[in-house]
Amino acid sequence: MKVTLEVKPRQKPHLPIEAEGILPRTFFEGADSLTVFRGNQEIPIGEIFAVTIEGDAGSVDDVEITILGDSSRIKRIGEYMDGGRIHITGDIGMHCGNFMSAGEIVIDGNADAWLGREMRGGTIRCHGNAGDYCAAGYRGEKRGMRGGTIEVFSDAGDFTAETLAGGTVIIHGNAGDLSGVDMKEGNLTIMGDTSRVCANMLGGTAYVNGTVYDMIPTFRKIGQEKVNGEPYTRFSGDIANRGKGTLFIRNYKYLD
Amino acid sequence: MTELLIRNACVIDPLNDICGEVMDIAVRDGKIVESVGSGAEVIDAGGNLTMPGGIDSHTHICGTKVNFGRYMSPEDMRAGRTARQGHMHSTSGYSVPTTYGTSYRYSAMGYTTALEGAMAPLEARHTHEEFTHTPLQDMMANTLFDGNWPIMQAIHDGDIRRAAAIVGWTLSAVKGFAIKLTNPGGTEAWGWGKDVASIRDPVPHFEVTPAEIIRAMIEANEMLNLPHSVHLHCNCLGKPGNHQCTLETFDLVPNANNKRQSLYATHVQFHSYGGSSWRDICSRSEEICRAINSKPQIVIDMGQVMFGKTTTMTADGPMEFNLYRLYHNKWSNHDVELETGSGIIPVYYSRKNLVNSIMWSIGLELALLTDNPWQCILSTDNPNGAPFVKYPEIIALLMSKRYRNEVFETVHPNTEHNVPLAALDRELTWKDIAIMTRGAPAKALGIVDLGKGHLGEGADADIAIYPININETDPATSAEEVIRAFSQTDYTIKRGRVVCRQGTCMVDGKNTTIWVDPHISENYSMDHDPEFAKNFDRYYTVRMSNYPVQEEYIRRNLCIETEAQL
Predict the structure, then answer these.
(1) In angstroms, what separates the C-alpha of A138 from chain B's closest C-alpha?
(2) What does the pLDDT look like over A187-234, one tens digit per residue?
């Protein structure tokens, strides 16, 4: 089943739309009465999107949703997604792929904050930049993302992979401040630069191929080590939190 | 004049010795009366269980501590969300819900009166503001005196009358209801990084012991003729082997009042542990209950623990620090100038954990081993043992041996070697439950004369009608029925109005704050005591004239004026 959702031009395009219903399962089960929220107004999906549905699906994994047009203010697409595929051709708003457990989301443009928050499984690939709290947990919660893969091909914002508790996060560009903060398990790889990486880390493994600025001083330096032929400095910590995490860092600078 | 007639009510009203009688209840202008005219609004109870409105005699739902629990646990607000609807505000939260959330959920369970378990006098305004926004329950506030400097000084000087005068002045200044002692002396010691290890261990700098504080406060309480007794959270909470401390504390209590108990010991579950460490902790509920059964001057509440997520909050600062060292999670620690302190920690009670399973057992054992239900009140020390929404499950556990066994199967397998629960066959009756949730708390709080906790003529028309027929339901075999019935009333009636109908609140509501004002002779009035004023100005960050809570903070209120023997 191919579902195409084209965002209609809106009078006030900056008003966010909450569209947690847009995920393959909804269309697999029949989305005739699907609604979205604009502020506190519940409106039919047809007011925001031109919807075309082609073909049938034998299972939720046969559903592919393509989103066209300016979707940069559409929030919570793919929340609780459990199979199928979503292809976003432009930018996407906040909270895309919250709690996702299976399936695939591909974003050709940029993603706003909270991409793949508290994700359980599946794959998210973002070809542009991701905002703050990419692959993160949520306010007050001890464990964030627990499984699956998030790959960002450009930069990510602050608090990337905050409270990471499983799964794999790969940032091909730079990550913002405090990436991997409070990390507990899982793998975080940052190809570019970041700062104050993995503060308060308890467990898991992180690689930084660029430079870490304002390196946290409470990591114990283990020594030089080669991983896949690449040279890294290996750290263990965060000992301020009795942590047993492992950091592999190419270059680092402590705060002056 | 508004009139209401409840027909076909199967009434259990322990204070008036009515047990399962099908009768009509007449209500005029918020009070229960002999009869009403033919124009009265009629509710047909259909033979269902009808009781006085529930009273929670120890719960933490309003005030700075509760609010800080909300503040530090945003994850708690993800549960229990409901949208605005009719007269109901939107709500959120599970263990520390918004005030409206608390109020609606209590009301849906038929509760119409609640006592906030601990209010720091200095922070009383916050408590009273939240009372105003807990519209469907009448509220009272226990006022903390566990580490009050001038009182400890007076006790040290052997001047109990002065201690009583300070209590009286403070209660009336902060619009409090009763004396609460939380780990007496211990929280003050915690201000110096210490705790007290027993009731004979002196408080640093004041050289008074918890035992002296407890005894003096019981005496002071009677001098002031307060409706409630001293409300005590014993020392050594949550420490293996603390039953010894609890028993010693119980031995201090004289039988000083013939209308009610002389000591209300709260959440005794947390104070009934044997053993010497977390490895060999066990239940000592049998010894504790033997003491209670032989001492009619003591009333306790259970402090039942139920499995799941919750938030612990208490004025017992050092205990919360010990918990923090166990959990390594978020922790709040707070000092209230020369009065008390507090601590807050979110916890998860797991049935896979032996210690948690033992705690769960002990609470039930206390209720089952206390012979006289008037001496053991149903509570979870909300939210410390569990959120109050678990009460229906506790009722079912107490009423059904079969259900108890089913749950016992699911807890840590070694629990049975450490607790006597499996050997207890007692199943509480409907009347026992009515006593533990209505009659006993009303009597213990001394508010029966105000018309609380019973359905006699002249009583407040606070009534709960539960969707269950007690003649057709055997609670021993139908635990699920019992849980369902106690989770949601058909009607909750407050002051003669239906405030909640099958879980939906029907009115905006307005609560009454009940407080005490002991009349003290000029000689003992703290308003004109130079030493009190001098120390106040020297140590407090507020002026003495700004300390009393203004009338604006308590909207509708009921002041109990007492004549102090001072």
Answers:
(1) 8
(2) 999 999 999 999 999 999 999 999 999 999 999 999 999 999 999 999
Question: How far apart are alpha carbons B349 and B498 in whole angstroms?
Answer: 36
Q: Is the pLDDT of residue A249 over 80?
A: yes
Domain contains A198: yes
Nearest chain B residue to A137 by CA distance is B75
Q: Please tell me the distance in Å from A142's CA to the nearest CA on chain B.
A: 9
SS3 B163: helix
Place of tokens 């895309």: A96
Are the beta carbons of B496 and B31 closer than 8 angstroms?
yes
**Inside any domain, residue A34:** no
How many Å apart are CA B198 and CA B283, to the nearest integer?
19
* Tens digit of each residue's pLDDT (9 = 90 or more) over B335-377: 999 999 999 999 999 999 999 999 999 999 999 999 999 999 9
Q: What contacts A97, CB < 8 A, 6 or more positions away? A: A77, A78, A79, A81, A105, A115, A116, A117, A119, A122, A124
Strand partners, A223: A234
Closest CA to A204 of A181, A223, A173: A181
Q: What is the crossing angle of helices B285-294 and B354-369, to 10°?
A: 20
Does B383 sit behind a cis peptide bond, omega within 30 degrees of 0 on the bond before it? yes
CB contact under 8 A, A142 and B329: yes
The question of ipTM being above 0.90 is answered as no
A143 occurs within a structural domain: yes
In a domain, A36, yes or no: no
Domain count, chain A: 1
Q: Do B73 and A140 touch (CB under 8 A)?
A: yes
Q: Which residues of A touch B94 (CB under 8 A)?
A: none
Do B230 and B181 touch, CB atoms closer than 8 A? yes
Please state whether beta strands B178-182 and B138-144 pair in parallel, antiparallel, or not at all (unpaired). Answer: parallel
Segments forming the whole domain that contains residue A200: 110-254
Read off φ and ψ for residue A128, nearest 5 degrees: -100, -145
B327 pLDDT band, cuts 50/70/90, is confident
- Hunting for tokens 């399973």 — which residue is that? B357
